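Homework help board

Subject: predicted structure for assignment chain

Our instructor gave us this sequence and asked us to write out the predicted structure in token form, then describe one feature. I got the tokens but I'm not sure how to describe them. Can anyone check?
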Amino acid sequence: MGNRGVLHDAEGRIGRTWQVKRWIVCVLKFRGRKRQVMTPGRYTELFFLDEATALAAGHRPCAECRRERFNAFRKAWRSARPGAKGLPPPSAEEMDSRLHAERVDPDGSKRLFRASLDELPDGVFVRRADSAEDAYLVWDNGLLAWSAGGYIERIERPKKAEVLVLTPASTVAVIRAGYAPEIHPSAVALS
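My token output:
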């Protein structure tokens, strides 16, 4: 589950795509807390297929309900930064500011960047350069076609292909530095 602040009105209509720079991914159950989805004036619950999908959307692990994952993400973030050896891991605010600059263009649209598919680690989401709609998870020497219900098709990972990367650049670096996103079980069935 994700959180970007209050995105809905009192009638449950979505009025914006984000409110705050703190985009987090949480667990569905935590310390017996109960919530009514889309409670007026409270944060809007966003649901993702898996952690890799949430990371591609620009979220990071929650520091409260996913503390162990948050700390692993911070450690990999620090490892991914040149000259960061010996420095403390970044704060949530530092990561949120950087991620926000990488996930939203000035016009409010999703920011993408081009990269060679050969250089991307497993756990990153891409779009083929010739398509404006598809999303694929880079996984186990292949590309897994994403759907809201699970991964539905595997294609071999093309060599020397240029792709549009959906996952923010800092998160790609975090994954490359050893952070392994949690993946929906349907990915295993296609591997």
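Reply (TA_rk): Your tokens look well-formed. For the description, you could write something like this. The chain is about 25% helix and 15% strand. That's the kind of observation they're looking for.
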